[in-house]
Amino acid sequence: MFDDGTYLIDVEGEKVGEINGLAVVGSGQYSFGKPSKITVSSYRGKAGLINIEREARTSGSLHDKGVMIISGYLGHTFAQDKPLALTASIVFEQLYSGVDGDSASSTELYALLSSIAEVPIKQSIAVTGSINQRGEIQPIGGVNEKIEGFYRVCRLKGLTGDQGVIIPHQNVQT
Amino acid sequence: MFDDGTYLIDVEGEKVGEINGLAVVGSGQYSFGKPSKITVSSYRGKAGLINIEREARTSGSLHDKGVMIISGYLGHTFAQDKPLALTASIVFEQLYSGVDGDSASSTELYALLSSIAEVPIKQSIAVTGSINQRGEIQPIGGVNEKIEGFYRVCRLKGLTGDQGVIIPHQNVQT
Amino acid sequence: MFDDGTYLIDVEGEKVGEINGLAVVGSGQYSFGKPSKITVSSYRGKAGLINIEREARTSGSLHDKGVMIISGYLGHTFAQDKPLALTASIVFEQLYSGVDGDSASSTELYALLSSIAEVPIKQSIAVTGSINQRGEIQPIGGVNEKIEGFYRVCRLKGLTGDQGVIIPHQNVQT
Amino acid sequence: MFDDGTYLIDVEGEKVGEINGLAVVGSGQYSFGKPSKITVSSYRGKAGLINIEREARTSGSLHDKGVMIISGYLGHTFAQDKPLALTASIVFEQLYSGVDGDSASSTELYALLSSIAEVPIKQSIAVTGSINQRGEIQPIGGVNEKIEGFYRVCRLKGLTGDQGVIIPHQNVQT
Amino acid sequence: MFDDGTYLIDVEGEKVGEINGLAVVGSGQYSFGKPSKITVSSYRGKAGLINIEREARTSGSLHDKGVMIISGYLGHTFAQDKPLALTASIVFEQLYSGVDGDSASSTELYALLSSIAEVPIKQSIAVTGSINQRGEIQPIGGVNEKIEGFYRVCRLKGLTGDQGVIIPHQNVQT
Amino acid sequence: MFDDGTYLIDVEGEKVGEINGLAVVGSGQYSFGKPSKITVSSYRGKAGLINIEREARTSGSLHDKGVMIISGYLGHTFAQDKPLALTASIVFEQLYSGVDGDSASSTELYALLSSIAEVPIKQSIAVTGSINQRGEIQPIGGVNEKIEGFYRVCRLKGLTGDQGVIIPHQNVQT
After folding, report:
1. Cα–chain-centroid distance for residue B160?
2. Do E132 and D4 touch (CB under 8 A)?
3. How far is C120 from chain D (nearest CA, A)?
4. What is the pTM (predicted TM-score) of this model?
């Protein structure tokens, strides 16, 4: 899937409003991590944050909660003086099975900020981690599988030595 | 159906806001591709993109997701300076069985752009392929059946030598 | 029902915003065509096209789709320069069993145009036929039963020699 | 219920925005007609016609359809030059069992017109009958039980000789 | 519950926008009346009457209908010349089991009027009774249990000789 | 969970718009109290109070009712002269199991007021208690388990001598 180009993912270069998120697929002995391209389109409008997965009924409650927490963070940080006038749509590209959990909420926020500020994100770095309304990172589960998943994709696409993963500091074990 | 004029489809000439999409009907040994006329009406308004299939409860989650991705692409591309003031309705004409999947999202985007820009589309070309929020084409399934389906319709309607199919480059096998 | 005046239907004269639509009731050996008075009220407002059957949960998906296609046609045809500022409600009068299918969508459009333009429609003519977003007529089923149904009502109400039925050209068999 | 004052109903005098509607309760051998006080409150606002029974989930589809037909009639008749700016709420007072059917739609329209125009309605007259978007009266069922029901209430409250019932002309049998 | 201060209720003094409503809990031989503190908060806004129980899915259809009738009464009485610009939220405090029926609608209206006009209500008086869109009181059920229920609370809190109950005149038996 | 830093909670210092709420988890013999970080983001907007748990379908009816009571209190207290122009989102951070009951409504109000006024809250104090539309505290259940729960977290994080719990006065037993 990743090696035949069926699944569009970049592990090199920089892109605005695009990021590699990490999700866990399967369970127990055979669970593995699957990187997902998350994209954000932000533009003039008043609709605020559009969680496309929610609109398409492919989002679970905890993913919805995560996106609304991002929205609260955004208002708290940028709308103290005047209201946000923004439409931004978030989506997991080529994800056909639905999404749940909040383990991508920090990742979604980074793609959103990249899109709004037009600051590119290194595609060589995949990100996982939950976030709260104050922008603090919260730990998530399945960190090893997620790292291995991204490593596997990079190996297929070509290891550059620059590739890596950002995980919550609480998930780091020394 | 196609030869007795019951199903309205053009395989010659040019039309604005109309395109031949390709869907797969049936499964396994007996699956075949059925071309569908997709039309878009765009006009003054503020409703944005109206997915008629969704409003009529004849659209599945993945088709809904595809149309919302088109909407994100549209905002990203054309609404950086001022909000879109547009109503556009997309429909699969004479489709009575409902639609799902994202394999027509690029096709729907082309019909939308044709309608907005009033640029005609060659009806001799049928299109299949998924699209992401950045406008990148993503591969789809059942490509052979879809090509055969359009060929069959063209043979019935009259082969002109100009007819063909646009498929995602990832689906091309050499 | 038609002969005792229980069911209000005109087969003579002209009326604005009223038309005789043709629906098929029953199935197989005993199916028959039942004419229905469709009325449209159009007036100042911003609600657009109101499908009363949908609001009352007496409309199926395919009928809903048909009315939204009319709405797309209307915008495409009349709202290129400025938005439509119109409220128009469509209803099948004295229909207590619900409606589905798109075989009355052209009929509904004619009643709508009659109401907006205040141009009367001959009540001696009943109409059946589906329509797409470009205003092209699409064929429908049960044409014979529908013609017979209207003929039966005309016979009861009084044959004038001016009565007839408009059907899609694709349904004409020579 | 009617004789001990539990159920508030007037069979004498005049009132604005209030009318005696006639509904059939029960079925077959033991069906009987029960008069219901229908009231309308109309005032400044933009909400249009509020069908309180619908909002309270005590209204069936056919009753909903009837109220929307009244709304279409109202727009057709009074909003050709400028939009209606009106809020009006319709309710069956002291009806705890829900309402369905369109046999009170003309009655509801009269109460509405009375409320808007501040013209009183004789409470000695009870009304039944369906109406279409053009304001034409349509026949209804159970006319005898309804007449008997109102007669019974009048007898309990005191026969004045002025009391009567308005029924659709199609329901009159000579 | 009432004697240990768990349930907040006043049976002396005056308060704005607060009233003691009477509901019947249980059924048959063991039914008893439970007084409930109803509060209304009214303030600047455009949301109209907010039935908090409905928003929280703790309100039955008949209670919803009752609150909408209050809303109709309010518009009829105060919005003939200009639209109401008001937000007011009604709630049964410390009621965890949900509410149905219209036996508190007059009570709710009094609390609403008290809140809007800033006129205090005597907490020594509990109220029960339904109301229609014209502000007429309608009788309710379980009047004895309700009176006994309030008496019991007053006895626990301290009988002052000023305490009493307002019931619909139709419920008075001499 | 609390000692390994998985669950983000502060039991020292001060923060704006953040508070330690107390919920009861489990039941009977093995029930225990689990402190939850509640955060509020308030900013310019017109959406009013956003109950994120409700939007994510992780909130029960009684929790919804509690948040709407806070909203009524807010309007009553601050919007007598002009409408509130405020968006504020409330969430239980890192709560994946949903929330019900009104035992955190006073807690949520304090976090809201802290966020609006930018006045910090001592994180050494955890709060439990229900509130009504007048801002009066109402007693709640499981007070001992809640106190023990917060004590346990403080012991793990480090007892400072300043830590404590605010409970409804009705829950105090002497």
Report:
1. 22
2. no
3. 14
4. 0.94
How does D118-138 read in b/e, with b if 16+ C-beta sit within 10 Å? eeebbbbbbbbbbbbbbebbb
Gyration radius (Cα) of chain D, Å: 16
Number of cross-chain residue pairs from A and B with Cβ atoms under 8 Å apart: 87
Please give the torsion angle defined by the CA atoms of residues A100, A102, A106 and A111, in that order, rounded to the nearest 10 degrees: 20
pLDDT tens profile A87-139: 999 999 999 988 989 999 999 999 999 999 999 999 999 999 999 999 999 99
Within 13 Å of residue D125, how many CA atoms lie on the same side as its CB? 12
pLDDT digits (tens, 9 = 90+) for C98-133: 898 999 999 999 999 999 999 999 999 999 999 999
Cα torsion at A117, A119, A124, A129 (round to 10°)? -30
What's the ipTM? 0.94
Count CB atoms within 10 A of the CB of residue A174.
2
Are the C-beta atoms of E18 and E111 separated by less than 8 Å? yes
Cα F45 from Cα A46, distance rounded (Å)? 11
Judging contacts by C-beta atoms under 8 Å, the chain F residues touching residue E37 are: 132
Q: Extract the residue ranges of chain C whose pLDDT is less than 70.
A: 1, 25-32
CA distance linking residue E36 with residue E108, whole number of Å: 11
Which of C68, C84, C138 is the closest to B94 by Cβ? C138
DSSP line for F70-118: HHHHHHHHH-SSS----EEEEEETT--S-B-SSTTHHHHHHHHHHHHHT
* Selected residue of F71, F76, F105, F167 to mutate for chain E interface (largest E Cβ count, 10 A): F76
The residue of chain A nearest to residue F4, with distances taken between CA atoms, is A170
Chain D residue numbers touching C45 (CB-CB < 8 A):
75, 79, 83-84
Alpha helices in D48-121 (DSSP H): 52-55, 61-78, 105-117
State the Cα–Cα distance between residues D101 and D141, nearest whole angstrom.
10
Cross-sheet strand order for the sheet of E48-51: E48-51, E87-92, E32-43, E18-25, E125-127, E164-166
Phi/psi for F119 (5° steps) reads: -105, 125
DSSP C144: H
Alpha-carbon distance of C71 to E120, in angstroms, equals 54
